[in-house]
Amino acid sequence: MTIQPVKALRGIFRPPSDKSLTHRAYMFGAAATGESLVRMPLTGEDCEATLRCLAQMGLRFERPSSTEIKLIPAPEWTQPDGSLDCGNSGTTMRLMSGFVASRHLNVTLIGDASLSKRPMKRIAEPLRLMGATVEGDTPPLRIKGSTRLKGIDFQSPVASGQIKGCTLIAGLRADGETWVTEPSLSRDHTERMLTALGVEVRRGVVTESLGIESFDEDVNFNSTADLEEEFNVVGWRAGVVGGSKINPFEFTVPADISSAAFFMVAAAILPTSRLEIKDLSVNPSRTGILDIFLQAGIPCIPDEEREELGEPVADMVVAAPFEKRRAFEISGSLVPRLIDEIPVLAVLATQCEGETIIRDARELRVKESDRIELVAKGLRDMGAEVDTFEDGMAVKGPVKLKGALIEANHDHRLAMAFAVAGLVAEGDTVIEGAESIATSFPGFEGELRRLSSID
Ligand code: S3P
């Protein structure tokens, strides 16, 4: 992919549908007690991998129109022929493991070269504690499931929507209650969607002074920062009771803020830009980028809030600021709320006044690639001043970037982040490995060209 500089991004933009929500919609549909309809699912390769794996275990699906998928679950999941190929998708492998481990199935999950290097011990551990047999701390993962798992109270060392999701999913069919405690709140799609589908999901916190506290049902998880401060929270808890049934559903998948982020940052750094973004998922466990825009002084106003299966959705206008953009800081509980956006936020940092500091983000080293080293290398090649730490980086700005040859290492988010950098760089930016963009954002380049203004 070759990117040339443009003057602004302008227009109306409906980003691709949310990847995390599409994966869960397919999986919950396959485990539901009747037929479900998913409108506007993400058609990216990661979610297609989920659908294929589910089909190997008995899910039938139909496409009543080009934007709808009807899911027809099998009464019992069946033993697949051959292994389940999760492609590049960590979410497929980790969440699917929770379903497989709690059924009478003997399954091998495999992935591409990048996924084959990613850590799976983090989900193997809770599944083993529950009584499943799991071999392989990196893929291939061999799971011998059991219908007699026992509920556990699992302390996850990292805040991860995938570890939490996998464990709670297995807990749906375990004996007794299954709880997960995590150090910061990771994306809570599993909790919200399952609640909307009739499962009793309990939530709570661990506080320094009071220990474990369970929340009443009316606690609003849309303002978790307030909760965190009020209770001095050191752990976030979610739990399910074994034997819970998942109701069938109709769900229109909202747009993915992690995909929108590339266009939001592009609009923020190209003067005179103005983008109207439609149907955006604004789940507060995903909206860390809005906090950063506030810190950096970039206008960004969510409007028309509504809800889809417990998930908040809004429209939003993002415009380039008149003032200089300010450097920002990412650390602590903000990290899981924007973990996938850090590569493109590092690009934003190169266009901000001052030194941006990113800390507590060592998880970036075990994503689709080592995103700390590769973001730093690419940005340095484009003329930026970047230092790396074990858990983050420091970026000095503002700097006039120059086009370069960038190796995205088949990592979709790196390829898109460097495409955004290329929009403000001098000369051509050539991105190798850009075909990976199809995993989460088919049509990225076309949308970028459609919204770009060169005068
Ligand atoms: C995801 C959780 C995050 C995120 C990934 C999707 C999910 O990973 O990076 O893109 O859908 O639960 P971790 O759970 O490893 O933080």
Describe the structure.
The structure is a single chain. This protein is of the alpha+beta class and 455 residues long. It folds into two domains: 2-16 and 254-452, UDP-n-acetylglucosamine1-carboxyvinyl-transferase, Chain; 19-150, UDP-n-acetylglucosamine1-carboxyvinyl-transferase, Chain (Alpha-beta prism), CATH 3.65.10.10. It is built from 13 helices and 25 strands. It has helices at residues 19-31, 45-56, 90-101, 121-130, 161-171, 189-196, 224-231, 257-269, 288-296, 342-350, 371-381, 412-423, 444-451, and strands at residues 2-3, 8-13, 36-39, 60-65, 68-72, 84-85, 106-110, 133-135, 141-144, 153-155, 177-182, 201-207, 211-214, 233-241, 250-252, 274-281, 300-308, 311-319, 329-330, 354-358, 385-389, 392-397, 405-407, 429-432, 452-453. The strands form six sheets. The protein has a five-stranded mixed beta sheet with strand order 17-18-16-2-25. A five-stranded mixed beta sheet has the order 10-11-14-12-13. Strands 4-5-3-15 form a four-stranded mixed beta sheet, covered by helices on one side. Strand 21 and strand 22 form a beta hairpin. The radius of gyration is 21 Å and the shape is globular. The model has no long low-confidence stretch (mean pLDDT 96). Bound molecules: shikimate-3-phosphate (S3P). Shikimate-3-phosphate (S3P) binds at residues 20, 91, 160-162, 165, 186-187, 339-340, 363.
Gap between N and C termini: 22 Å
Number of domains: 2
Total strands: the figure is 25
Q: Level of helix content?
A: 25-40%
Mean pLDDT: 96
The CATH homologous superfamily name of the largest domain equals Enolpyruvate transferase domain
Portion in strands: 25-35%
Molecular shape: globular
Name the strands of the widest sheet in spatial order: 17-18-16-2-25
What's the alpha carbon Rg, rounded to whole Å?
21 Å
Largest sheet: 5 strands, mixed
Please identify the structural class as seen in this structure.
Answer: alpha+beta
Instruction: Give the CATH class of the largest domain.
Output: Alpha Beta
Please identify, by name, the CATH architecture of the largest domain: Alpha-beta prism
Helix count from the secondary structure assignment:
13
